[in-house]
From TrEMBL, chain A:
Gene3D superfamilies assigned to the protein according to its UniProt record, in alphabetical order: P-loop containing nucleotide triphosphate hydrolases (3.40.50.300)
One MF annotation (Gene Ontology) recorded for this entry: ATP hydrolysis activity
Coiled coil, from the record: none
Pfam families assigned: ABC_tran (PF00005)
Family membership noted in the UniProt record: Belongs to the ABC transporter superfamily.
SUPFAM superfamilies assigned: P-loop containing nucleoside triphosphate hydrolases
Protein's name according to its UniProt entry: ABC transporter ATP-binding protein
ABC transporter domain residues: 2-236
GO terms of biological process kind: L-amino acid transport
SMART domains on file: AAA (SM00382)
UniProt keywords, alphabetically: Amino-acid transport, ATP-binding, Nucleotide-binding, Transport
Taxonomic superkingdom: Bacteria
InterPro entries membership: AAA+_ATPase, ABC_branched_ATPase_LivF/BraG, ABC_transporter-like_ATP-bd, ABC_transporter-like_CS, BCAA_Transport_ATP-bd_LivF, P-loop_NTPase
UniProtKB/TrEMBL annotation, chain B:
GO terms, biological process: D-alanine transmembrane transport; L-alanine transport; L-isoleucine import across plasma membrane
Organism name: Lientehia hominis
Topology relative to the membrane: Multi-pass membrane protein
Similarity comment: family membership: Belongs to the binding-protein-dependent transport system permease family. LivHM subfamily.
Keywords, alphabetical: Amino-acid transport, Cell inner membrane, Cell membrane, Membrane, Transmembrane, Transmembrane helix, Transport
Protein name: Branched-chain amino acid ABC transporter permease
């Protein structure tokens, strides 16, 4: 589905990513974990074309997207739910969801309606608030809105950047349940998390990112019991 | 009393034109994310386009309106290509200074091409005067208010009911999020910029009809009025900017009732300063902002 080969990214003189290679298979949940400044968000931004790559190649769904404009990559069916949600603050919840459909010109009116129903069914709270401004929602609701907006374009794959950031544990659990449901609906998920134990417990495979390099990889369960991961990210010996 | 009422009518009419300028200005600023100083020149070009249409094709107001809109649209495209597109990721003051320079260029080119004299724009609309009780309303004023209202309604429908309008609003709120939902931000920003400029052009035409004259340097005062109105409305909020324009028009005309007409601008800007002292972000209430 998605293949990164030897991706390097520079911010000015600072090299943020040093030759990252990873692979996401169809209908998998893949998680990328790592500490602050490890390059997780940069990896996602380089996939969706928001930062320039110094080196390497990215292929999505069999097409080379390395130098493609961000909006074109989205149109191939790759949704990116950014860190910090980024809902449109003065658009209503309904309008926010509808902006999601702008990324997929192939959607028919009926299909859009269907997708909207799906999101409302999955996130009932959004339906209650559909005429409220996006910026007036709570953090958890905004996160749900951001995910639902990504799903509105009926993507093949969705990338989530720290969906649990700053949310109460109970909401985090709800969001992780949603992520499993998204995969069960036939979508591929690339998940970036600081909450490593949660992420690894639902992931098929995981990559550990440190200082812009991938240092470890394995199935979610393997990484959960890996001593190195335990020491660095799970906080128990 | 009669005089004040009539001045109020004049104020509303003038305010309607300012409102239209401010609407155009807010659309441009919102969608490009940068302050523009070419708006006055855009309006001037609109006025001249309609002037030449009136001269060669007769006094057809609709034709003039379309011409003004189209000419300003094209100038808007130029402004976008020259002043914004390359500097999208650069610091904002670069394109700001670029718009200042571009406005000087356009203004001086206009003086060369159109001449430095004032041009008369006479009898575009038959100058009938209606009397309602003590109030006198001229046909021109009615036409101006009708055109402004019609455009405002059209624009509201476009922004709130169409997918293209929604994309425009999304771009003006958060450009990086707009990229991520698959909006082609640059194209949308250009169209938004052109729509704003086109509306400015129509406002310029109305100004020329109202004052029965147009000239190459008319843009500078107009752009100050558009800018102030838009600041009153919180820069990017279209509705509040329109309200700001209306207020400035009314204040100006009521102000000169009590003093001389040369204090017109003084009243406008004093009002602006007073409002900003009391409400630093203008009239607008940030919708969707959590306290």
């Amino acid at each position: 589905m998605l293949e990164l080969t030897n991706i390097s990214v520079n911010y000015g003189y600072i090299q943020a990513l040093h030759g990252i290679s990873m692979e996401v298979g169809k209908n998998e949940i893949i998680t990328l974990i790592g500490g602050n400044g490890a390059g997780k968000t940069t990896t996602l931004m380089s996939i969706s074309g928001l930062v320039e790559k110094a080196e390497g190649r990215i292929a999505f769904d069999g097409k080379d997207v390395t130098k493609m404009a961000p909006e074109k990559i989205v149109k191939l069916g790759l949704a990116h739910v950014p860190e910090g949600r980024k809902v449109f603050p003065s658009l209503t919840v309904y309008e926010n969801l509808m902006t999601g459909t702008l990324g997929n010109p192939k959607l028919t009116k009926e299909r859009i309606k269907e997708l909207l129903e799906q999101q409302y069914e999955m996130f009932p709270r959004l339906k209650e608030r559909q005429n409220q401004a996006g910026g007036s929602l709570s953090g958890g609701e905004q996160q749900m809105l951001a995910i639902a907006r990504g799903l509105m374009m009926d993507p093949k794959m969705i990338m989530l950047d720290e969906p649990s950031l700053g949310l109460a544990p109970i909401i985090v659990e709800e969001i992780f349940n949603m992520i499993c449901r998204i995969r069960n609906n036939g979508k591929t998920v690339l998940l970036i998390e600081q909450n490593a134990s949660m992420a690894l417990s639902i992931a098929d495979r995981g990559y550990v990112l440190e200082n812009g390099k991938i240092t470890l990889t394995g199935s979610g369960k393997e990484l959960l019991v890996n001593d190195e991961v335990k020491r660095a990210y799970l906080g128990d010996y | 009393m009669e005089y004040i009422l009539n001045q109020l009518i004049n104020g509303v009419c003038q305010g309607a034109i300012y409102a239209l300028m401010a609407i155009g200005y807010s659309v441009v600023v919102g969608v490009t994310g940068m302050v523009t100083f070419t708006h006055g020149e855009v309006m001037m070009i609109g006025a001249f386009a309609s002037f030449y249409i009136f001269q060669y094709a007769g006094s057809h107001i609709v034709l003039g309106l379309l011409g003004a809109f189209a000419a300003s649209w094209i100038l808007g495209m130029l402004v976008y290509k020259i002043c914004y597109e390359h500097f999208f990721n650069a610091p904002r003051h670069i394109s700001l200074i670029c718009t200042v320079g571009f406005s000087m260029l356009v203004q001086n080119l206009a003086q060369i091409c159109f001449g430095a004299n004032k041009k008369p724009v006479l009898n575009i609309i038959e100058n009938r005067v209606f009397k309602i009780g003590p109030v006198r309303i001229s046909m021109i004023q009615v036409a101006i208010v009708v055109i402004v209202l019609a455009l405002a309604v059209l624009l509201t429908v476009y922004f709130n009911r169409t997918r293209a309008g929604m994309a425009l609003r999304a771009v003006s709120q958060d450009k990086s999020a707009a990229y991520l939902v698959g909006i082609s931000v640059k194209k949308t920003a250009m169209i938004g910029n052109c729509i704003g400029c086109g509306i400015g052009g129509v406002a310029g035409m109305l100004m020329a009809i109202y004052y029965q004259t147009c000239y190459a340097t008319m843009g500078s005062t107009m752009s100050m009025k558009a800018f102030s109105s838009s600041v009153l409305g919180g820069m990017t909020d279209v509705r509040f900017s329109a309200l700001g324009g209306l207020c400035i028009g009314v204040i100006e005309n009521l102000g000169i009732t009590f003093s001389s007409a040369s204090f017109r601008d003084a009243f406008a800007f004093c009002f602006l300063i007073l409002v900003l002292i009391i409400r630093p972000h203008g009239f607008s209430v940030k919708k969707g902002a959590r306290p």
